[in-house]
Amino acid sequence: xxxxxxxxxxxxxxxxxxxxxxxxxxxxxxxxxxxxxxxxxxxxxxxxxxxxxxxxxxxxxxxxxxxxxxxxxxxxxxxxxxxxxxxxxxxxxxxxxxxxxxxxxxxxxxxxxxxxxxxxxxxxxxxxxxxxxxxxxxxxxxxxxxxxxxxxxxxxxxxxxxxxxxxxxxxxxxxxxxxxxxxxxxxxxxxxxxxxxxxxxxxxxxxxxx
Length: 210
Ligand SMILES: C[S@@+](CC[C@H](N)C(=O)[O-])C[C@H]1O[C@@H](n2cnc3c(N)ncnc32)[C@H](O)[C@@H]1O
What we know:
Strand content: 25-35%
Number of helices: 7
Bound molecules: S-adenosylmethionine
Number of strands: 7
Strand order of the largest sheet: 3-2-1-4-5-7-6
């Protein structure tokens, strides 16, 4: 069953589960970029700035985790990064991402499950707007560390509302104390949308240890 864009938008921030979230993004995919531009969405540009500060130009794949329609991939490509891979829950969002022609590989798979990549595969992982209490879960962090090469970077944003409930700060600390990553930068809470004071986000840059 397909749902309307209006219904999808209502369900995005309070889905009844993963299948509902996937269906909502599938239904929103074609209008996502226009709607987000109208709201003044800033995260892909901000995440690109953090990547540019830490990740050298060069070879080796970079994962856009929860890539959606591929806005972050487009920014990274403009900044000169190549060998980009995309992952997302929603096939509909990934179809739009594919049309941008900046990703060499796109996979429809859920963050929070085991990902179909070998240990240390990516030299960096970047993610804009995909983690939050009703979106990609904190439990996915350790899997992203697994698929990052030692010394590689992870640039991650998390929606601020419900962050404690979603266990995000706790998981950041747990992985640091377990010696899996170290925090290089912390930002926020900051506005991710122009004129939307309720849409606050946090951002971190981590380096995988070892
Ligand atoms: C607000 S959009 C952000 C998309 C894109 N990164 C951007 O900045 O425009 C959130 C994206 O996260 C994806 N998502 C939510 N939960 C996910 C999960 N568990 N695994 C993978 N993707 C997920 C959604 O399908 C959606 O494409």
